[in-house]
Amino acid sequence: MPTFTHRLLLAGLLLPALLAGQPTYRHTTTPKALKPYKEGEQHAANQDYALAQGFFEKAVNTDPFFVDAWLQLGYVEAELKNWPASELAFEKAVVLDTAYALEGFFKAAQAEWEQAKFDEAAKHAGDYIALGKANDPFYYMAQNLVRNARFVQQAMANPVPFEPRNLGPGVNTANDEYFPSLTADGESLVFTRRLPVSSFGDNEDFFQSAFTNGQWTTAQPIQEINTPDNEGAQALSPDGTWLVFTACNRRGDGSQGSCDLYWSQLKREGWSKPQPFSSAINSEHWESQPSISADGRSIAFSSNRPGGFGGKDLWITSRGDDGKWSKPQNLGPVINTGGFELLPYLHPDGQTLYFASDSLPGMGGLDLFVTRKKPDGSWGEPTNLGYPINTTGNEVALIVSLDGRTAYYASNREGGLGGLDLYAFEMPVAARPLPATYARVVVKDALTGQLLSARAEVVDLGTAQTLVAASTRKNGSALVCLPAGRRYMLNVSRPGYVFYSENFNLTGDAGLDEPFQVTAELLPVPAEDKPESAGKPVVLRNVFFDTGSAVLKPESQTELDRLMRLLQEQPGMRIQINGHTDSQGDDALNLTLSEDRAKAVYDYLMQKGINADRLRFKGFGESRPVDSNDTEAGRSRNRRTEFVIW
Q1: What is the C-alpha to C-alpha distance for residues 424 and 360, in angstroms, rounded to an integer?
Q2: How far apart are CA 36 and CA 33, in angstroms?
Q3: By CB atoms within 10 Å of each CB, which of 41, 198, 280, 316 scores lowest?
Q4: What's the helix, strand, coil split of the chain in %, to 5?
């Protein structure tokens, strides 16, 4: 069964050697040269390259003009990673017969690349392009090599800051650890670990670690999801309640074939049984390496399904209000190339995408790139993250913390604990996403303090669009991401309770210093067994007026419509709307203003069909402060509209 490690998913720089014999043998009729050549072919076909090397050397020593022998010697030396000898053999071939041995230019360029001889590599790849045709087998790769050779010299002359630090023995072992996934609060890490199980194969499983007291705890396997087969290439939703991952060649569970995307949800009793996505997302082709958007409504992934631009492309699917996933859309030619685009990561800012590509200008192999969404919703030109984050090897599977400062990836660099380890490093400023933060919401019964399960929704007040809808976990809390630059309404609701609202203003630099910690105390709907709910104020934190005005601002509508629906659902409920001001200005004017504002809410509900005998209003001016009037924050809390049940 295929594994998910980057070594098997990725295309290397060198193609397999073309070791089949030519129909004729160029420039030799000497049996003494032809005999060792044919023996070399047989050993090469059996992948015994060291023996093949000796026979091909004997062939060229016997007949120095034997072009085929020089070509095959170049291939064998490349397989043995004898790069100078490979370079020399291919150069000999193209000098002897340029037209016949044209591919030797490209193969010499690859050998020079491996020796960091980038100028020479660019020249030989350029010769192959100039003398060849667009349909030649290595034409596309030669173009990439020329472009990369120019890029790598500039990148190495202008390195970006890069100081990776190992995540430590709680996460890393002598086995391979890779594909990190992180919750928005940075406290829970899920990753893939390769475990040796027998001489016949390895097993890839999910492990989870918690960040406690400044370090990662010893990772534990996720038993509900792990199987004797391989699970990998996973994405954890920012709130930690949804896992989307890849499994291959499973039968009888609704999978579509090849590698498919599966999902599991974190319930009170643990992770649910994994289920494959339907044919709306999965196909008979390869789907893998998902990433979940912060609102849980989009999944980006890599696939070789038809309709793309190359070997593997990035695609995205979105979930509508009806819960159905859309037909995946290709991210287009700005991102996707004729090569491989892999491992997308949608940052919770909603505007930034990181991914790996082997065909955009880079250091060679797979490099990490960042692209940003433009105002029209399309993706901008990708930017290479730079050297030494990217090297002439393969870099993949990057994720970035919510604040954009810390990146995580896997590497087998020296000094690790064995194989691939997970590392963190400070992301260069130019490659960081937009600022974002989160709100952790704990829901309680306002009368008993008991933790409650509830629904938490985040609404963009500018568009009235619901961005996130989450349910509280078994600890009574929910985590929601809040990208900077907008104003948000939080609404927490549960049947049988009055809703709770909160407001987050993240315009400018406001609100990004610390995450929000919200305790939402839900008031039970008054009943015979809950009479104490009556008379307790419920603040409408998303009802807005201009300074000195009693005219409702348009963004108040979302909150007031929720109040209207509550009254419709509870036909026996009667409320009094109360208006309050801070202490700034004339007392009498404040009293009038507060009453006018309360009446504005009263009038809105009346216009929506709520009977007048269920409503009343009153203004209290500045007489009932809930905070100090000596600070702007305190005065803001004192300026409020609320209601009580009577």
Answers
A1: 24
A2: 6
A3: 198
A4: 25, 30, 45
